[in-house]
Every structure is written in structure tokens, then in C-alpha cells.
Amino acid sequence: xxxxxxxxxxxxxxxxxxxxxxxxxxxxxxxxxxxxxxxxxxxxxxxxxxxxxxxxxxxxxxxxxxxxxxxxxxxxxxxxxxxxxxxxxxxxxxxxxxxxxxxxxxxxxxxxxxxxxxxxxxxxxxxxxxxxxxxxxxxxxxxxxxxxxxxxxxxxxxxxxxxxxxxxxxxxxxxxxxxxxxxxxxxxxxxxxxxxxxxxxxxxxxxxxxxxxxxxxxxxxxxxxxxxxxxxxxxxxxxxxxxxxxxxxxxxxxxxxxxxxxxxxxxxxxxxxxxxxxxxxxxxxxxxxxxxxxxxxxxxxxxxxxxxxxxxxxxxxxxxxxxxxxxxxxxxxxxxxxxxxxxxxxxxxxxxxxxxxxxxxxxxxxxxxxxxxxxxxxxxxxxxxxxxxxxxxxxxxxxxxxxxxxxxxxxx
Amino acid sequence: xxxxxxxxxxxxxxxxxxxxxxxxxxxxxxxxxxxxxxxxxxxxxxxxxxxxxxxxxxxxxxxxxxxxxxxxxxxxxxxxxxxxxxxxxxxxxxxxxxxxxxxxxxxxxxxxxxxxxxxxxxxxxxxxxxxxxxxxxxxxxxxxxxxxxxxxxxxxxxxxxxxxxxxxxxxxxxxxxxxxxxxxxxxxxxxxxxxxxxxxxxxxxxxxxxxxxxxxxxxxxxxxxxxxxxxxxxxxxxxxxxxxxxxxxxxxxxxxxxxxxxxxxxxxxxxxxxxxxxxxxxxxxxxxxxxxxxxxxxxxxxxxxxxxxxxxxxxxxxxxxxxxxxxxxxxxxxxxxxxxxxxxxxxxxxxxxxxxxxxxxxxxxxxxxxxxxxxxxxxxxxxxxxxxxxxxxxxxxxxxxxxxxxxxxxxxxxxxxxxxxxxxxxxxxxxxxxxxxxxxxxxxxxxxxxxxxxxxxxxxxxxxxxxxxxxxxxxxxxxxxx
Lengths: 412, 482
Prior knowledge:
Oligomer: heterodimer
Order of helices and strands of chain A: HHHHEEEHEEEEEEEEEEEEEEEEHHH
Number of domains of chain A: 2
Helix content of chain A: 10-25%
Distance between the termini of chain A: 68 Å
Mean pLDDT of chain A: 89
Distance between the termini of chain B: 15 Å
Number of strands of chain A: 19
């Protein structure tokens, strides 16, 4: 008699198909190796301490449906941008691209791959099963006149995607990555973003995550930054029942600057986890992290930030802060801001707060005739504004404000 | 002295040899090395223990057998071979001393070298000392005075014989034998320790104190301390340790349980200076300690620790704030030098309403050492209006050392207020400049800054202990602390 252990990971992978891809074979071999004897992580593993995957392994996913371009266009946020629509195997590219910008499906590009850095099994699965994505290349000294907008609409199925970005020396760009999913559909998407930021480039990534309930949204950012560059990732999570973001930024050239910001508004049974790793490998760099969130109903928010300062990274300035407001008895906040420092001439600090709205501020507003609800909403909005100031495009900002107001019934 | 720089200070720290390295030549009564049920039965028989305690030990041993050593801490070391340790070592003379004069002069000498001469302490400070030398308590002072008030302060083995009902009622209620690898090991093989009971409404008139010392080579020490403060009582308990120089690593796995009943207050202060290993990182004590206290309604537990010794430290004095309005505090200075590694911090578990906790942790790393703070602040659903403030600062002395912070913050109640902040830096050039500009030499300036940096914690120590703490800090960081 053969006894078979129930391996959830194997079950999960059973209907995934690996087709030949351009991912280097040694990277694939490493992923295979990493996967050996692995199962779905449980709450006993450090990185999944607060994330339960039972729902993911019990979900039956809807079949993937291909959406027409017109349907995708409905999800557009910025009207004045170079817009790429991405839905499963379909990629719709803009036809008005300026000189110095190349965008193509990843399968047709000559992009290179960073060395393996797997933080969890999904990372490794991505290497094995990702076939689709886009490759965006911006040439040296090219400054974009308007943002690039990548709209990714998830419509059923289990998918792994990879998007690669290459920013040439002294280039300047603002990229919006909008994640959506169609309503009432069970789907899973794990998206890997790889960024290569050359010397003196000034790059801003804004991720707007507005998925629906039933969609499992995993993203991972892997960035390498060269000297004097400025790099920013703003992760704005508006909706989505399950969201996990894992950002790793490595600074490899001196005098570089990094901003990692995040904002999340949670309600119902939402689970949003933000993991960040800021790796200071060289001297004279700065990094700033600000993550802010509001959790209501039965939601759970997780923040785990790690700042590494390697031995040679003298004169590093690294700041990290995580602030949360808890609005309900059943919601929970888990915060773990970590510092690991091996150099002595550095200034590093982190702060984390969890609490509720300031009573005196509430009183001030109530005394001026605002209803309790409006006063609270106003304060919550102000609380999150620290992060939203990094979003410069008014259309995007309006979209965020409108979505929040309608989800949380914020009326003034 | 005017050109004394931070580098020189670091140099000096590295060259600092352990000052308390000596072995007292007293015949020890040691059981065969190794660990199995027979050894546990032997320890239990030797100590003439009741059967429930033997059962407890065996239960813990079975559980320990199925556990694996934890690896999550930010420390790297050669795991001890648990079968190569002698689990019981007692000084040969078993007779109890009637008076201080009867005490073996060699023991007295040992204590003198430690700078904690009992005579002096008795005369000058009025501190009652329960001196534990290799597992068995050999001298207890002020016992009579304390017993007038109904305070019980004795060795753990005496307590087992004389107050078995108290021991049985409270032992293992805060740190169960299933708690973790080292707590389970301790529960199976603990040899001695201290026991303290403060009756209802009594304010203990003096600081209670024990000094631990690892002596015979190759023996592990497994103390167990149980402090019970009954309703409305107050006690300040001091624990200090220095250990002689040894080459092979020695294991120290203690369990400390504090129970603060309604309206009671316990102040527990530790100065830890086990042998940290030499400049090359050879030898030194492994300090794997489980310390935890439980607070009932309106009770307060305050942990203060000055950690300067041990090759590897793994220690998280914690508070379970079970009762409403209870308070937990944690003040810590951890100094690591050469190849020392420390992973220390606290856990504050808020269960009751209006519970408050404060965490102040100051780390100083020098040489090639690694110093980590690891803490948990957990606010449970029912902990209405819970309040926490944490501050973890690290000071780096050289560019080979590391300072790390791993705080866990888990909040399940919307009315809770939690603040955590951490900073890492070296001694500020501007601060140094400010002092030197006013004519203070560089050495004195560094000393002033480091002293000021630790002041918040040192201030929490009882007067009698602060002197000892300053002494130990000075030994670990000589040249910087005046």
C-alpha cells in the first residue's frame, strides 16, 4: 500500500504548466533546488507568521477569461500617459512611444536576469512558471515627458508574471503599475518586478493595488541601484482580500537615495502584508521608509521592514517608520521593523506606532461643528496624507481619494 | 591623554582580560556526566526530593527529549553536547553553617575576590545574601530578621523540604516545563536556586540578593528561582553573577519565575558578568535563561538588567500583564565586547485592561561582538486601553561589531497605544567636541557620554547594586566608564 502525504504545494502546482521560457536554466535549476521538500509555508515560518494560506490552498480558481481591449481600457487611471494593458497572455502596447523607450513582451526581449533571491516558495515558482510579462527599457539620458502606466487586469486562473525594467544612466521616469481584478472571480497572480537602475537615474514607481475580493495578489520587487540614483516605490493598497508585497532594494553605488512608501486601508476580512528589505551595501547612501495604514472590521495588516547596513556601508542614513490606526476590536496590526547593522558610522532609526485618533484633535473638529464621523474621516485622511504626497499625478490622487471615500463611506 | 581616541578605547576594550578568572579549590561532589532518567533520579535522590518533584522532572525530561534546540536567535555558536555535562555539582561539605564564622575561609576569599564580601555587605548595606556556589546554597544571612516578618528567603532545595505546598502550587505556573528547550532542560535537571515568599501586605525591609557563580569545570548550572509576592506586598530582589575563567564553554540555563499577586510589586535586578571568553572568542559561558513574571490586578513587575558577560546570551525577561491596571517594566544595558554575542530583550503580553509597559534597552557593542535586541509587545483583544512605550538604542564602538533590532509588535485592540523607537549610532562627534571644547579630556568625555547613555537604566538599580553595576560596566568598558 502506498501512503501519500498531502503536500499542499504539490496540489497547488498540479495544474500549472511549465512551458519553455527565456529564464536562464541555472536560475531555473536553483528554483527547482529551493523547492525540494518544500510545502506551503505555515504560520510557524517567520515570513508567514501572520499570513494564513489555508484559504489559498482551499480555493478553486475560476478559469481564465481573456478580456477585450475595450474592457481593459475601463481600468485606466491616467489619461495622459503611455499606457500598456496587460491581461494574462495579452499585451497591448502604446503606439505613441517617444524615442529612447522600448517596450515589448518579455519573451521577445533580450533582458537579463538578476541572480536568484528566493524569499518564499512563490518566488521560486515564479521562476519556474512565469511566461508572460513586459520588458521596459529606457535609454540613457532619456527623460520621459509623461508617466508610463502598466495596467494589469487579473481575470481568473493561477498565473505567474514577470516585468523587467531597465533604466539607463541619467534617465528619468515615473511608472504607474495598476493592479486590478474582475469582480467575483477567484484568481491568483504572483508578479515579479525586476528593476535595474543605472547611475544618476531618477525613477519613481507607484503601485496602485485595487483588486477585488477573491483575488490573491502577490508581488515582489527586486531592485538594484547604482551610484547617485534616486529610486522610489510607493505601494498604495486600496482593495483586495489578500495582498502580499515583498520589496527588496539593493544599493550598489554610492550617494544613492531610496524611498519606500506604503499606504493601506483595510476593511472586512482583508489581509495585507508588506515586507521590505533595504540593503545598504556601499557607503554614503540614504533610505527612507514610511508605511502607514488603517485597519477596520476583521482585517489584518502586517508590516515587516528590514534595514541591512553592511560592513562597508559607512555614513549610511536609514530611516524607517510604520504607523497604524486600529479602528475595530477584531482587526489586528502586526509590525516588525528590524535593523541589522554592521557598520559603526551610521545613523539609523526606526519607529512604529499603533493607536487610535488623537482625542484632542477630534475635540477640536467637533467643537467646530463637524459630525463625529466626518471629524474621524478627516483625521484619517490627514494621517495617510504623508504617504500620498509622493503621488504627484492629480488624476491618480483623485482616483485614490474617490476609491477610499466610496469604500469607507467618507462623506463630508 | 589628550589624544585618546575612540579607536584607542576600542583597542583597550579588546585587550581587556577577564578580571574575575580564578577557580576556588573546594572538593566538589559531582555526579557522572551525561543525561538520562537515572541521572535525574540520582539528582532527585541526592536532594531528598518528594515524589511529585521527581515526576515533574521526568515529565520535563520526556518533553525535552522531543524538542530541538532553537535556532532563530541572531547568534552562532557550537551547540553544547548535553551528554558531556555533569548535571550536579555540590561543594562536598553538606553541613549547614550556624554562623558566618563557620564558613570555609576559602569560600570567603572567593567572595572577597568577587568584590561582594559578605561581611562587608552585611555590615554596610544590610543586604541579605543567599550565596549559591555551584548549585548548593552555603550561607544564608539575615534569615532570622526576615522570618520575623514572615518572609521566606531560602535556597530552592530548602523550600522543597520546608514549604512543599507553596513550591508545588506556584512552580511551573509562569514558565511551564513545556515552555522551551532550555526551560524544559532546566525543569528536568535543576539543582538549586532561590525561593522567596513575601506574605500579604508585607514590605520587605531590605534588598534580597543572591550571587551565582559557576565553579567546578565542566558543570552546567541550572538554577531555578521562584519569587512570590503575596497580595499588597513589595520586594526588591537582586541577582548578580560572576564566573571564573574557563576554556571550554559552560552552559547556564536558568529559569526565573516571578508571581506578583494583587497589588504586589516585585523589582528584580540582575547584574550578569559570566566569563565572556577571551579576546579570540575562545571559551565563555552560554547563558540561555528563561525569565518571566506574571502580574495580577494592580501588580507591578520591574526587570532591570546589566549584562556585561557571557559568550552567548539568550535572555528575554518577560511580563504577563494578566490583571487589570498591572504594570510591566524592562530596563536593560547590554554590553558586548570581543566575540561576545547577545540576543536579549523582553516580551510584554498585555491581557488585562489599562495595562502599561515600558521598555528601555541600551546596547553597546565593541570589538567583534554582535548585540541584538529582540522584543515582543502583544496586545490581546481584551486589553482595553493598554499602553506601551519602547525605546531601543544601540551604540557602536568599532566597525567590526554589529547592532541589531528585531521588535515584534502585535496589536489586537483598537484602544491600545503602542510606540516603538530605535536608534543606532556611534558616539556623536558633536557631543565629543562639545565636551572637549569645554576642557574635558577625550577619555573623560567618552566616559561621560557612555555613562549618560546608560543612566536611564542604571538609575533603576537599587543603590546598593548600582555600585556593583558601575564596577562591572567599568570592567567591560574600562576607560570609558569612570
